[in-house]
Design brief:
This protein has 230 residues and is an all-alpha fold. The chain has two domains: 60 residues, Arc Repressor Mutant, subunit A (Orthogonal Bundle); 140 residues, Tetracycline Repressor, domain 2 (Orthogonal Bundle), CATH 1.10.357. The protein is 70% helix and 0% strand. It contains twelve helices and no strands.
């Protein structure tokens, strides 16, 4: 799946205000998302049906499928908005910047805009609680990892194009994006185990993990010869 960066994926950050009909559609979509994520976090993803979601949102099942093809699509819709923001941030980074710096600075821009990007659709705390549900739900976790792999491929191709490389013959774009993605995943797993951790804690954890990439990959970890022999 390629991340959709078209304005229709979420609220338009610039331009004229949507008309009344469009605003009504956005309110209906957002009500469905709030109902879906709320039920997924409280009741469980597998235990929640589309009928449960539409009942909570007070709309018809037909209305649900007008906006989403499946429960999974609804579940990850806010995340898709955030991912689209990240992809666009990578595209906008200045030429000549080192690839890892590009990824880090694009991520920082995404952090700065996540409340506007996601918070306009669902409450940010609900979005964060849902990610803890992802970690404890095999079907959601599998979908999350699949989507992350697809996003990494898209980003790798953007990086390759910026560097004038063919990612199918030069492995470096995929390698740097794979490392970056693995670090994000490691930070995400630590964060999800902390019940009271919010967005600031996730950002700090991610930053500290990224700060250790070079030493983790190339540095010696032993403090003394004796430590290495244990």
């Amino acid at each position: 799946m390629t991340v959709d960066t078209a304005p229709a994926a979420g609220r338009m950050p610039e331009g004229p205000r949507p008309g009344l009909r469009e605003r009504k559609k956005l309110r209906t979509r957002d009500a469905l998302l709030r109902s879906a994520l709320g039920l997924f976090t409280e009741r469980g993803y597998e235990e929640t049906t589309v009928d449960d979601i539409v009942e909570a949102a007070e709309v018809s099942q037909r209305t649900f499928f007008r906006y989403f093809a499946s429960k999974e699509e609804a579940a990850f819709f806010p995340a898709r908005l955030s991912e689209a923001h990240f992809v666009e941030s990578v595209r906008r980074r200045p030429a000549g910047e080192a690839p890892l710096d590009t990824l880090r600075r694009a991520l920082s821009a995404s952090w700065d805009g996540i409340e506007e990007t996601v918070g306009q659709v669902v409450p940010l705390d609900l979005h964060l609680r849902f990610y803890r549900t992802v970690e404890s739900t095999p079907a959601l976790l599998a979908a999350h990892l699949r989507r992350a792999t697809e996003l990494e491929e898209e980003i790798a191709r953007i990086i390759a194009a910026r560097e004038g490389l063919d990612p199918d013959t030069d492995p470096r774009p995929r390698v740097v994006v794979a490392v970056f993605g693995a670090v994000l995943r490691a930070a995400e797993r630590v964060w999800s185990a902390r019940d009271d951790a919010g967005l600031a804690e996730l950002r700090d954890l991610t930053t500290s993990h990224l700060d250790r990439v070079e030493t983790a990959l190339t540095g010696a970890w032993h403090t003394s010869p004796a430590a290495g022999g244990r």
